[in-house]
Amino acid sequence: MSETASAVGGSGTPDGELSTEVLVVGFGAAGASAALEARAAGAEVLVVDRFNGGGATAISGGIIYAGAGTSVQRAAGVQDTAEGMLTYLRAEVGDAVRPETLQRFVDTSPAMIDWLSEHGVPFDASVCPYKTSYPNNRYYLYYSGSEASGAFRDLTPPVQRGHRAKGRGASGKKVFGPLAASVQRSGARIRLHTRVTGLIVEDGRVVGAEAVTLADAPARISRRFARMAALAAKPGIYYPPMRRVLESRMARLEAKFGRRIRIRASKGVILSAGGYIANTEMIATHAPQFAGGLALGTTGDDGAAIAMAVAAGGVTDHLDDVSAWRFITPPSAFFGAIVVDEQGNRMIDESRYGAALGRTLVRDHDGRGWILADAATMRTAARQLPRESLWFQLVLTLGLVSAGRVRGKTLAEVAGKAGIDAAGLTATVAAHNAALAQGNPDPMGKPADFTRVIGDGPYTLLDISVRPSVIYPCPMFTLGGVRVDEETGEVTTADGAPIRGLYAAGRTAVGICANSYVSGLSISDCVFSGRRAGAHAAAQP
């Protein structure tokens, strides 16, 4: 390094050097999108990833939030406009980004679906006929947010904008797989099992990174590391103790067989290495209320990229914003039930997106809540569950029913068994039923097509409280990150000045979903912000 150069976040002395024009750190949807855009502009690109690539995208449901008249919507006969999509997102995400950025996200939404299709991501125009948290393998276009809920349908007509990549089960691999193959075909270099440890700064500009790579390790070590990385992603996501053991073993392999290298990047470094849900210390510091959730992400979501950006002069925002998922469907019959707290009071329009319920539970009700259903609703739910669910939804619902259910012939009896205030629950049900009988709006604003009279018992209370659980976990992921220039994707300082040569995208950065998340909005923002960063970095001299 020159006298004016420094490494931030790294340690040790590198014993090798690589060079490129654009260095992409993290190979998920954001990293792949950045690489493709930079290559399309003619830049030389090197992509590095600590693990096997894919990030949280590859293990996700593979939903893309898009609208304003996409090719898939048109094929399905779904009418949507940019104005309608913008109206909904303004209400949903608030001031997460500037108005002009949200407008640009909406205006380019149809083209994003076309771009993804051109790179091989498969879509299908089959519309889910019922509202659900995630459609089964017959349907690939659905209401993936709160579009059909009371507070939002009053603003703009509800429209299906959740574009599920076509593929059985969780479809994330159907998003990342084609993008990764396209990156390979583009001529970008990809180096897996390479962990970036710090950024190289010269005269205030980021010009590269230091890393530890297993590229030169014995083949058997590389294979072992790859197997452990795959297991840590899935099934490790469902069983954190197993993931922690694998993480420790992978770290030992890196320490023993890793080679320190320096990577020079003449045009820029793009940090697209995920959020920080896997970093328990960061969660304890910035979002302690959410410590009881299941980390919905990979080992790579450890906040390391965010820390490196901060060490280079960047600033963070929204680190206390976490998406906590508490879906009550499938079965769709539960939309007709009510969700109550310990006082027996309702807390939300039950047709809202599951992260809205999760947020309310954690922030306003100490994580405590129950679904109250009458006998008829439980019978309908039992019929619906097998045909509306994928395997993981079935497992979660069966876990809820087996571990968190109490029953009673009367409201007072079931409330007593659950530890809920009986008088409060009885009054809540009376107010709910009276509104329906009198033709008045639901007290919590739930649309009429989802409201049902709470009828005869026996009554069931299902405990949906947020707490550590293997049987009925509450998946969570982080929404905050480092601030970026919304025109370029460059990381910015506290006074808003760009840090030359340093970009952030996806969940490493503050983006469209920094305030509020609905299904598909994170991957859409990964594509949007990744392409933005890749294009601007490639255009640098």
List the helices and strands and how they pair.
Blueprint lengths: L4 E4 L8 E9 L3 H12 L4 E5 L5 H4 L4 E3 L5 H6 L5 H12 L5 H9 L1 H10 L22 E2 L7 H4 L8 E3 L7 H15 L2 E4 L1 E9 L2 E9 L5 H15 L6 H18 L1 E13 L8 H7 L7 E2 L8 H8 L4 E2 L4 E3 L13 E3 L13 H11 L5 E4 L1 H14 L2 H13 L1 E4 L2 H8 L3 H16 L21 E5 L11 E4 L2 E2 L7 E3 L5 E7 L16 H18 L3
Parallel strand pairs: 2-3, 2-10, 3-7, 10-21, 11-18
Antiparallel strand pairs: 1-8, 4-6, 5-6, 8-9, 9-10, 12-19, 13-18, 14-15, 15-17, 16-17, 20-21
Helix pairs in contact: 1-8, 1-18, 4-5, 9-10, 16-17
Detailed description of the structure:
By secondary structure, the protein is α+β, with helices and mostly antiparallel strands. The protein folds into three domains: 5-59 and 172-323 and 475-538, FAD/NAD(P)-binding domain (3-Layer(bba) Sandwich); 63-164, no CATH class; 326-463, Succinate dehydrogenase/fumarate reductase flavoprotein, catalytic domain (Flavocytochrome C3, Chain A, domain 1, Alpha-Beta Complex). The protein is built from 18 helices and 21 strands. It has helices at residues 29-40, 55-58, 71-76, 82-93, 99-107, 109-118, 150-153, 172-186, 219-233, 240-257, 280-286, 304-311, 354-364, 375-388, 391-403, 411-418, 422-437, 521-538, and strands spanning 5-8, 17-25, 45-49, 63-65, 141-142, 162-164, 189-192, 194-202, 205-213, 259-271, 294-295, 316-317, 322-324, 338-340, 370-373, 405-408, 459-463, 475-478, 481-482, 490-492, 498-504. Strands 1, 2, 3, 7, 8, 9, 10, 20 and 21 form a nine-stranded mixed β-sheet that branches. It has a four-stranded antiparallel β-sheet with strand order 14-15-17-16. A hairpin with a 5-residue loop joins strand 20 and strand 21 (498-504). Helix 1 (29-40) packs parallel to helix 18 (521-538), helix 9 packs antiparallel against helix 10 (240-257) and helix 16 (411-418) crosses helix 17. The longest helix is centred in the middle third of the chain and has 18 residues, at 240-257. It is globular. The relative contact order is 0.18. Residues 1-5 have low confidence and may be disordered.
